[in-house]
Amino acid sequence: MTDTSTPAAADIAPHTPPLFGKPDSGLRRRIYTIIFEADTSAGRHFDVLLVAIILLSIAVVILDSVPSATGAIKRPLTVLEWTFTLLFTAEYIARLYCVRHPWRYATSFFGVIDLISVLPTYFALLVPEASVFLDIRILRLLRIFRIFKLTLYINEYLRLGRALRASGRKILVFLSVVVMAVLILGTVMYVVEGPENGFTSIPMAMYWATVTMTTVGYGDLTPQTNLGRLIAAFMMLLGWGVLAVPTGIVTAEMTSQRMNWKPTTRTCPSCLSEGHEADAKYCKDCGESLPAYQYDKSTD
């Protein structure tokens, strides 16, 4: 039996959601197949269409924040925004309708994102600008969270999410080393430079150390003594090398996961569970034999 210890995509995004439940037959199963199963032709077309709509809706949100643009094309932007809102509302209702456990989907991460993507437009309509909220633009800007919906339809987001989660402890250790370096070198700079050169406290010196080590270099606080400049040069070189560490950790993890595992939406004919690996021969939940997986290169 194939090893199934690798995390499934179901715990990241609802492309393979056994937790939500797949209907046995009927219209709900058909809608489920289109919305959730990315390995089908209808599912791929649905995903491409949703990605295009999300990108267009984000463009509308951005244009809506430009005063000159809203003055010239305010009405078309309003029509487009309501069109996108109604489409996303219909998609959200369809997702709740086609799963066996709608509450589980509604309280999942992407279920909440789906809800947030439509609520601001309705709130902006229901709440007068001069009453409860001082500036209704805060609600309108929440529509930008629609960008998170893209992660539902692009498989690389899932791979990156799994790699970050698997690398979490290594990155945490790395960050702890960086924090210790910032604390130690910031304290040294506070002693060397002193308040007369702008290093008025250890937190201020740590701010400078953080800016220097991350190679941002705002220039609002600079060392004036030769020793301070030497320490600053050392921190710049240290930061240059340090920045490559988390990149290497995540890249190595992504490479390892790509070599060892590829998520699919294969469904067990017996218990209807999903998310089996491409080379799995038996269901990870009930042990039933699985039909042969037809690999589709277009999903890569």
Automatic annotation (TrEMBL):
InterPro entries: Ion_trans_dom, VG_K_chnl, Volt_channel_dom_sf. Residues 45-257 form the Ion transport domain. Keywords: Ion channel, Ion transport, Membrane, Potassium, Potassium channel, Potassium transport, Transmembrane, Transmembrane helix, Transport, Voltage-gated channel. Residues 1-21 are annotated as: Disordered. The keyword 4Fe-4S does not apply. Its main location: membrane. It is a multi-pass membrane protein. Pfam families: Ion_trans (PF00520). It is found in: Membrane. It comes from the Bacteria. Gene3D superfamilies: 1.10.287.70, Voltage-gated potassium channels. Chain C. The chain crosses the membrane at residues 48-67, 79-97, 109-134, 171-192, 230-252. The keyword Membrane applies. SUPFAM superfamilies: Voltage-gated potassium channels. This is Ion transporter. It comes from Massilia mucilaginosa. The lineage of its organism: Bacteria, Pseudomonadati, Pseudomonadota, Betaproteobacteria, Burkholderiales.
